[in-house]
Amino acid sequence: MTNDMPDVTPSPARPMRRRALVLGAVVVGAIAGYAGVSYLSDRAPSGDPSCQPAVALSKRLAPLARGEVAALTMATAPLKLPDLAFVDGEGQPKKLSDWRGKTVLVNLWATWCVPCRKEMPALDELQGKLGGADFEVVAINIDTRDPQKPKAFLKDGNLTKLGYFADANAKVFQDLKAVGRALGMPTSVLVDAKGCEIATIAGPAEWASEDALKLVRAAVKPAAAGM
Predict the structure, then answer these.
(1) Fewer CB in 10 Å around end: N or C, the chain?
(2) Which residues contact 3 (CB under 8 A, 6 or more apart)?
(3) pLDDT digits 0-9 by tens, 19-60
(4) Could you tell me the residue ranges of all domains in the chain?
(5) Which CATH number fits domain 49-219: 3.40.50.920, 3.40.30.10, 1.20.120.350, 3.30.450.20?
(6) Separation CA 105–CA 165 (nearest Å)
(7) Is the previous residue joined to 186 through a cis bond, with omega within 30 degrees of 0?
(8) Distance in angstroms (rounded) separating the CA atoms of residues 165 and 181
(9) How do residues 50-89 score in pLDDT, each as one tens digit?
(10) pTM over 0.85
């Protein structure tokens, strides 16, 4: 017997066409979304252009960030540090911009910070060996209670080569934290003569070691170091 029932199996053409249209819309949307993200990325600020030389120097110095200074994070994007405000040992106001023209190692420390206290002799020695017209360690104390305590600590430790700088409100820490450069204590930032970041380290380092001295010398006088 011949089966005269019509074939009611739906044609695959229509669902396939619908799927193709949906897939096409998804692809177009994805491309548009990517283009939008790419456009926004291209338009995003790229930092202070005057700090590009510091990034280039950082790249050349990177092979020297080893041994006792292996924990240094070298700058990969241009960043001019905030113009940190603090006072000197006489209570006179100071700003980081007062050191323009010098390479500076900015260090934040406190007497309640055990790693800070252990690091201070090395910073004092670094200042004694390399401090001068082209370089200075600017160690800023952020004790907020007894201003005499950090002075007594330096005196008792015979740490006489470092200048005394302090911010009893610890705003310098907040200012560096705001640009992602203070996550704990101690914090040190190597800054070029224009106030631009070269490298940052969260935690202590043996700043009087040969590894540190070689890196700092190269940062101060890159041409003499063959950088």
Answers:
(1) N
(2) none
(3) 443 334 333 333 333 333 332 233 333 478 999 999 999 999
(4) 15-44, 49-219
(5) 3.40.30.10
(6) 13
(7) yes
(8) 19
(9) 999 999 999 999 999 999 999 999 999 999 999 999 999 9
(10) no
**Residue position matching structure tokens 């011949």:** 2
> What gap in Å lies between CA 187 and CA 200, rounded to an integer?
8
Q: Is-contact 116 205, C-beta < 8 A?
A: no
User: Which residue is it, tokens 């420390």?
Assistant: 109
Nearby residues of 178 by Cβ (< 8 Å), 6 or more positions away:
82
Q: What is the signed CA dihedral for 88, 71, 127, 139, rounded to 10 degrees?
A: 10
Distance CA 145, CA 34 (A): 53
Q: Which residue has the tokens 């969260």?
A: 202
